Amino acid sequence: MPHSTRRTFLTALLGGLPAAWAANRATAAAGVARRGIGLGMDNYAVRAMGWKAAELVDYAASLRLDSLLISDLDAYVSLEPAALAEVKIRADDQGLRLYAGSWSICPTSPSFKATWGTAEAHLRLGLRVAAALGSPVFRVVLGSRDDRKTPGGIAARMADTLVVLKACRSQALDSGVKIALENHAGDLHSWELRRLIDEAGTDFVGANFDTGNAAWTLEDPLDALERLGPVTICSSLRDVMVWSVPEGAAVQWTAAGEGQLDWSALASRWAQLCPKVPIMIETISGFSRTFAYRDPSFWNVYDRRPEALDRFERLARRGRPLEAFKAPPGAEGRPVTQAYQRGELERSLVYLRDTIGLGLKA
After folding, report:
1. In a 3-state reduction of DSSP, which class is residue 70?
2. What is the pLDDT of residues 256-289, one digit of tens each?
3. pLDDT at residue 284, as a whole number
4. Which pLDDT belongs to residue 32?
5. How do strand 279-281 and strand 39-42 relate by DSSP bridges?
6. Closest C-alpha among 293, 286, 288 to residue 313
7. What angle do CA 213, 217, 218 make, to 5 degrees?
8. Residue 123 predicted with pLDDT over 80
9. Strand 39-42 and strand 97-104: pairing?
């Protein structure tokens, strides 16, 4: 096992921090101005744990978080009203606001799965679940960057998604739950998502903003926030590292405070653009993706906007390659992956609470 992997694993197994270090951390944090912005987590950050909703609630509460986005419907033991009510009570008792979510609602996307029926049935089910949990939103996605290469391109997939959204408008309004559509895995540039939200109607649709995914559409996350912040109603954030390669740029996601994202600047704009929305962390780290945008054919499916690309390239010029994470094979791999994911998330939360001043709980 690589030394860095072993160190992460053993740290998580040992649990806790030395008392002196924790005391110093508390003293330092006490001097940080609080920003009045909630701090939470997306359950996908610790997907290797395999936890169901009750375990996720208890874990989030143990981290003194304000909110928890459960972005998978199969995280619930049951979707019956009584079972969902139990989850809500458990969260309420621990001062935790629940946010509900699921995945693709675009019926023609390669990412769409008929697990919950048609795209419209999936969205209607999610709205019901969100209402039962007291979630103000139901988070969904269109698909991934693969949609950009489908017949008709991303514009056709946006049109198909718009039909589904509009079909569920009355249920969303009646339930008091807004649909939070994410910029997901390179599917939508920030300006494409904003256009789709505006066409659907901001009375029932908003954005689930994802900083890491913004980099997969060759955007500086802070630039994307300027476009999506005014309609952001939910979040799944992480840090990014971007560096130049001969064919274009590589992007690797990482823990907050360990990449290039200026979290202080982000928090300041967040407080101006969407202050009531908690910043929820979805760390997905340990691998990079290369975007060969110096090949002219790349732009056959992406929308080239020189100003946005220039801001992205500024990140690439300042960035550096990061080491990839790889779990050992066999039975040892799962606990190492679990420890790695928890370490990425928990370091992010410590940094954002103690250095940036996020979180509403003392």
Report:
1. strand
2. 999 999 999 999 999 999 999 999 999 999 999 9
3. 97
4. 86
5. parallel
6. 293
7. 110
8. yes
9. unpaired
339 within 8 A of 8, measured Cβ to Cβ = yes
pLDDT, tens digit, for every residue of 188-227?
999 999 999 999 999 999 999 999 999 999 999 999 999 9
**pLDDT of 270:** 98
Instruction: Answer yes or no: is pLDDT of 2 > 80.
Output: no
Distance CA(291)–CA(68), nearest Å, equals 32
pLDDT at 20 > cutoff 80: no
Find out whether 103 and 111 touch, Cβ atoms under 8 Å.
yes
Beta strand pairing call for 288-291 and 248-254: antiparallel
The two tokens of residue 218 are 């060759």
Q: How confident is the model at residue 362 (pLDDT cuts 50, 70, 90)?
A: confident
Question: Which pLDDT does position 22 carry in this prediction?
Answer: 44
Asked if pLDDT for residue 310 goes beyond 70, the answer is yes
Helices 221-228 + 190-200 axis angle, to 10: 10
Measured distance CA(204)–CA(152) in Å, rounded: 27
Query: 156 and 142 in contact (C-beta within 8 Å)?
Result: no
Which residues have a Cβ under 8 Å from the Cβ of 214 and sit 6 or more positions away?
A: 183, 190, 220, 221, 223, 224, 225
Q: Amino acid letter at 45?
A: A
Question: Does residue 352 sit in helix, strand or coil?
Answer: helix
Strand partners, 244: 249
SS3 94: coil
Here the tokens at position 125 are 């089910």
Both tokens assigned to 257 = 């405070």
Assigned CATH class of 37-238+262-282+341-356:
alpha beta
pLDDT in tens, 83-111: 999 999 999 999 999 999 999 999 999 99
d(CA 354, CA 351) in angstroms, rounded, equals: 5
The rounded distance, in Å, linking the Cα atoms of 82 and 69 is: 20
Q: Which residue has the tokens 């003194």?
A: 64
Whole-number Å distance between alpha carbons of 299 and 310: 15
SS (H, E, C) 292-307: CCCCHHHHHCCCCCHH
